[in-house]
Each structure stands twice: as structure tokens, then as C-alpha cells.
């Protein structure tokens, strides 16, 4: 299968993809438009191209992941690249090697792209300053998770035809969520209006500065919204107790059909996964293909990651004589 035309996204001038903050609406649109072409490739019988033939992608994960790691792996392989997976569990990180030592070791093996997830905010940027290859942030602490926001935007845009003017409620554990932060940047840049909804303990102070409206009541927060995006309670990042009990949390902030009735009649429900059924979201609603975009979000994840790998390696291909 031939790769999408090389002139689909002129002017994407980033060496790394570390966050949505700092990306222009044109950059975001270029990535989303290119992703559309990869949705088609992924739905075709022959899913593989040779765009990344001879290129090496290393997935370096210092935190657990199912869909992000798998979809980056699939994305690299569907583009014909060689993909290596490394997790902190099985690497020398366990023996006390620092982030930078690990980065320098991998750098010496001359990869073309490093995809990095790390529990500390800012760690991926630090690493990008030490290596010669392109770096993609697959989630750093509570800071950013740019490819998640891009895949969310792609899923919304495909169903609603646009992002501008939509009213989006991001609900739950905003405080610990890099997904929330990247989505707030992206949706704001693309002209959507964003609300954050959750208990005061899980909303960062001064989040209004990011251009969002804050609600502590779920029904009021999602009233009239086009999109209701639920977030996981990130207990692994909590020190101490942020919610009284899971039961009580679901009662006030869990999304079920009754609360969803406050949103627009055709409002769509999203969740980045992994979801805690019966904690953030009612199980039956999560599986309702008319209301829930959750399955599509996962599908869009592969396409968006292919687009990111494609764009970041374009300069390598043109340096090598335009051998796309
Ligand atoms: C998110 C993450 O890791 O930040 N998950 C994901 O990438 N699909 C959200 C989460 O872990 O709750």
C-alpha cells in the first residue's frame, strides 16, 4: 500500500512531539488530516507500508501501559519500521541506571525515534535534550500526553465534523491527569469550549488560567455539552485520600444515563482508558456504541501515532534523497 502523499502536511517544523502546548492550530490540523489517511490504511486488507523501512523506533516505558505502548508498536510496524519495546521492569533502570544513562545508552544504538513514558513531569523533555533522535512523549507524569489528545480530537472530529464551537466537559481526576491537560490545550487551540468537572480536591487551583470553566456539580457541569470526557481516578499518583469512597465518588461523579441526560441529547461519551467500570463510568454506558466513542478512541490511537512517526521522520527521508 502506498503511503499518503508527502505534501499533505507542509510546514510541520517540530523535531519532537513533547506536548500540545506550543503546537499551532495548523500543526494540529496537519497531524489530524494525515491521521485520516492512516485510518484508511489501517482499515484496508493490506495494512503495511514501507515508509519507515530501515528506521528504528524504541518504545521506552517507565510506567505501565497497554494501549499506548501497543498502538505505538503497531504504528511503527505498519509503517514498516523496526520497533523495540523496553520497559523499566526489564531494563537496567531496575539496577539503578538513571534516566539520562538509559537515554545515552539507547542513543548510542542510533534509533530514529524514541517514544517515552515516564512518571515524572518534564522527564521526557529532559531526555529529548540529550539524544540525537526524535522523541515522542507518551505521557510524562501529570504534565502532557499529546498523542492521546490528538486521538481524542480525531475521534471527535470524525463524528462531529469539527472541533470549533463544541462544548466539551472533562470530568473527574483533573489534578493528576496529563490527558486533561493535553486535551485542554488542544481543544482550546482549536476553538472548542472546555469545562472541567470534579470534586474540589481533584481540580488544580488556578486551572481557570488555562481558559476553562470549573464545575463541582456533575449535572451542572455537563449541561448542554456535546462531549463528556471521563477520566480515571489516578490512585497511583495520589498521596493520601482524595475521595471519601469509590461508592460515593460514583454517586456524585460517575457517569450514568441519568446524569448524561443533562448533556445534549446526542452527546458523546469518551474515556482514555483504562477505565474503572462502576467508578468513573457506568459499564452499560461505556459499551453503548451509539453514545460511547471509547472503541473508536483506541482505533484512532494507531492512526494518530502513525501520523506522528511519519511527520517526525520526514526530514530523515528527505535528507536521504526523498526516499519516502
Ligand atoms: C492515560 C494515561 O496513561 O495517562 N491512559 C492512556 O494513555 N490510555 C490515562 C490513564 O492512565 O488513566
Topology at a glance:
Elements (H helix, E strand, L loop, with lengths): L24 H19 L12 E6 L5 H12 L3 E6 L11 H10 L4 E6 L4 H6 L5 E7 L5 H15 L6 E5 L6 H12 L3 E5 L15 E3 L2 H5 L4 E4 L15 H8 L3 H4 L7 E3 L12 H4 L7 H26 L5
Parallel strand pairs: 1-2, 1-3, 3-4, 5-6, 5-8, 6-7, 8-9
The chain binds N-carbamoyl-L-aspartate.
How would you describe this protein?
The chain is of the alpha/beta class. It has 11 helices and 9 strands. It has helices at residues 25-43, 67-78, 99-108, 123-128, 146-160, 178-189, 218-222, 246-253, 257-260, 283-286, 294-319, and strands at 56-61, 82-87, 113-118, 134-140, 167-171, 193-197, 213-215, 227-230, 268-270. A 5-stranded parallel beta sheet has the order 7-6-5-8-9. Strands 2-1-3-4 form a 4-stranded parallel beta sheet. Helix 2 links the parallel strand 1 (56-61) and strand 2. Helix 5 (146-160) crosses helix 11. The chain is globular. The model has no long low-confidence stretch (mean pLDDT 93). Bound molecules: N-carbamoyl-L-aspartate.
Q: Could you write a compact summary of the structure shown?
A:
The protein is an alpha/beta fold and 324 residues long. It has eleven helices and nine strands. Helix 2 links the parallel strand 1 (56-61) and strand 2 (82-87).
Amino acid at each position: 500500500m502506498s503511503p499518503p502523499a508527502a505534501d499533505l502536511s507542509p510546514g510541520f517544523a517540530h523535531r519532537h512531539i513533547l506536548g500540545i502546548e506550543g503546537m499551532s492550530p495548523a500543526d494540529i490540523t496537519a497531524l489530524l488530516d494525515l491521521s485520516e489517511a492512516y485510518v484508511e490504511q489501517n482499515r484496508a486488507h493490506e495494512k503495511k507500508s514501507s515508509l519507515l523501512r530501515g528506521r528504528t523506533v524504541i518504545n521506552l516505558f517507565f510506567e505501565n501501559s497497554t494501549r499506548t505502548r501497543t498502538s505505538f508498536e503497531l504504528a511503527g510496524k505498519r509503517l514498516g519500521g523496526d520497533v523495540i519495546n523496553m520497559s523499566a521492569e526489564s531494563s537496567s533502570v531496575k539496577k539503578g541506571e538513571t534516566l539520562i544513562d538509559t537515554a545515552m545508552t539507547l542513543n548510542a544504538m542510533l534509533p530514529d525515534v524514541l517514544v517515552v513514558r515516564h512518571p515524572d513531569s518534564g522527564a521526557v523533555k529532559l531526555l529529548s535534550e540529550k539524544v540525537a533522535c526524535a522523541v515522542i512523549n507518551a505521557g510524562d507524569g501529570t504534565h502532557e500526553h499529546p498523542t492521546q489528545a490528538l486521538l481524542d480530537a480525531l475521534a471527535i472530529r470524525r463524528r462531529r465534523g469539527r472541533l470549533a464551537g463544541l462544548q466539551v466537559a472533562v470530568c473527574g481526576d483533573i489534578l493528576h491527569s496529563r490527558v486533561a491537560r493535553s486535551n485542554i490545550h488542544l481543544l482550546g487551540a482549536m476553538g472548542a469550549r472546555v469545562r472541567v468537572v470534579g470534586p474540589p480536591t481533584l481540580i488544580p487551583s488556578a486551572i481557570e488560567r488555562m481558559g476553562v470553566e470549573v464545575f463541582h456539580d456533575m449535572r451542572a457541569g455537563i449541561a448542554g455539552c456535546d462531549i463528556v470526557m471521563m477520566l480515571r481516578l489516578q490512585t497511583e499518583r495520589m498521596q493520601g485520600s482524595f475521595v471519601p469512597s469509590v461508592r460515593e465518588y460514583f454517586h456524585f461523579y460517575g457517569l450514568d444515563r441519568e446524569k448524561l441526560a443533562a448533556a445534549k441529547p446526542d452527546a458523546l461519551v469518551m474515556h482514555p482508558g483504562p477505565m474503572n467500570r462502576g467508578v468513573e463510568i457506568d459499564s452499560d454506558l461505556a459499551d453503548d456504541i451509539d453514545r460511547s466513542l471509547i472503541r473508536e478512541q483506541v482505533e484512532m490511537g494507531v492512526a494518530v501515532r502513525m501520523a506522528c512517526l511519519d511527520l517526525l521522520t520526514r526530514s530523515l527521508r528527505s535528507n536521504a534523497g526523498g526516499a519516502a
